[in-house]
Design brief:
The complex is a heterodimer. Chain A has no helices and 9 strands. Chain A is mostly beta strands. In chain A, the strands form 2 sheets. In chain A, strands 1, 3, 4, 7, 8 and 9 form a 6-stranded mixed beta sheet that branches. In chain A, strands 2-6-5 form a 3-stranded antiparallel beta sheet, with no helix packed on it. In chain A, a hairpin with a 2-residue loop joins strand 5 (about 65-70) and strand 6. Chain B has strands spanning about 5, 10, 20-25, 30-40, 45-50, 60, 70-75, 80-85, 90-100, 110, 115-120. Chain B is globular. Classes of the chains: A mainly beta, B mainly beta. The interface of A and B includes residues 6, 36, 57 and 91 of A.
Chain lengths: ~110, ~120
């Protein structure tokens, strides 16, 4: 199956808010409340920022929030900081024993 | 602290084979499904394979089916990926990842390793 669709890049200034979308189908994003978002610095271990669409693991800033509407999930980062600059990937459960990922979005903090 | 540590990556010729490993610590490995996810240079993450907590059930991406085999040794807290008939398109950093809940569960991962680099080139 094809990857979930994310914008290749987004940018924002410190203090601003940005939103990254993640579009799938009714076979994955639209069918399960099982979307996660990861912050990733290449070569390092991805870090989960949001799981089950809206939940934040302990230790993750409440500046990070998730939502979903139909086949599209979204990650919003408010009050942008320089340390938020990274790649962000979405992932959805896709049935059975499978995961499906987005193509990744590079966030630049201007 | 939950940790996953991959090893075994390297340079292999097209058509060759390689086995990579992932050593788990800081949690009860045998309680969790785990999987492999890869990232080719300049590309996004791609799910490769997953295996149930007991090793009885597996699944593979179409791109690797019939060439890759995932297996685990719960007595050694270690996950493996045996790769054969490798092609240049298999060049990627391979990450080990733990499913986001225990038991018969394959929720998206919650913990990841730092990955091991596999390069397929002549």
């Amino acid at each position: 199956q094809s990857a979930l669709t994310q914008p290749a890049s987004v940018s924002g200034s410190p203090g601003q808010s940005i939103t990254i979308s993640c579009t799938g189908t009714s076979s994955n994003v639209g069918n399960y409340e099982l979307v996660s978002w990861y912050q990733h610095h290449p070569g390092k271990a991805p870090r989960v920022m949001i799981y089950e669409v809206t939940k934040r693991p302990s230790g993750v800033s409440d500046r990070f929030s998730g939502s979903k509407s139909g086949n599209t999930a979204s990650l919003t980062i408010s009050g942008l900081r320089a340390e938020d600059e990274a790649d962000y990937h979405c992932c959805s459960f896709a049935g059975g024993r499978t995961w499906i990922f987005g193509g990744g979005t590079k966030l630049t903090v201007l | 602290e939950e940790q996953l540590l991959e090893s075994g990556g390297g340079l292999v010729q097209p058509g060759g084979s390689l086995r990579i490993s992932c050593a788990a610590s800081g949690f009860t490995f045998s309680n969790y499904a785990v999987g492999w996810v890869r990232q080719a240079p300049g590309k996004g993450l791609e799910w490769v394979s997953t295996i149930s907590y007991d090793g009885d059930t597996t699944d593979y991406a179409d791109s690797v089916k019939g060439r890759f085999t995932i297996f685990r040794d719960n007595s050694k807290d270690t996950l493996y990926l045996q790769m054969s008939n490798l092609g240049v398109d298999d060049t990627a950093r391979y990450y080990c990842a733990r499913a986001g809940c225990s038991g018969t569960c394959f929720r998206p991962p919650d913990y990841w390793g730092q990955g091991t680099l596999v390069t397929v080139s002549s």
